[in-house]
Amino acid sequence: MGLWTLLEGFLLLANAFAILNEDRFLAPKGWSFQEFSGGKTKSLKGQLIGLIYATQYLRVPLIILNSIFIVVKLVSG
């Protein structure tokens, strides 16, 4: 497994986090951001929720990174 494959995997994971809908998926499972903004952010679950919301706010850089990966894949063959 090369470095490029590892980076591609992380990009796919970030894309998966970015498209999660709070109302449909996160809130019914108890992963709403309002539930963990009171001070439970030190737990693993709270940090995962923070990571999910951070990737949702970084959608424009994700679009740019996806475009770069697509172009590189097309050029390399």
CA(first)-CA(last) distance: 18 Å
Rg on CA atoms, Å: 15 Å
Helix-and-strand structural type: mainly alpha
How many DSSP H or I helices? Answer: 4
Mean pLDDT, to the nearest integer, reads 84
Q: Give the overall shape.
A: elongated
The level of helicity is: 55-70%
In quaternary terms, these chains amount to single chain
Low-confidence sequence ranges = none
Strand content: under 5%
User: Could you spell the SSE succession in H and E letters?
Assistant: HHHH
Tell how many strands the DSSP assignment holds: 0
Largest beta-sheet characterization: none
Architecture overview:
This protein has 77 residues and is an all-alpha fold. 69% of the residues lie in helices and 0% in strands. The protein contains 4 helices and no strands. The chain has helices at 3-18, 22-26, 44-57, 59-76. Helix 1 crosses helix 3 and helix 1 (3-18) packs antiparallel against helix 4 (59-76). The longest helix has 18 residues, at 59-76. The mean pLDDT is 84.
Write the layout of secondary structure elements.
Blueprint: H1 3-18, H2 22-26, H3 44-57, H4 59-76
Helix pairs in contact: 1-3, 1-4
Write out key terms for the chains shown.
0% strand; 4 helices; single chain; mainly alpha
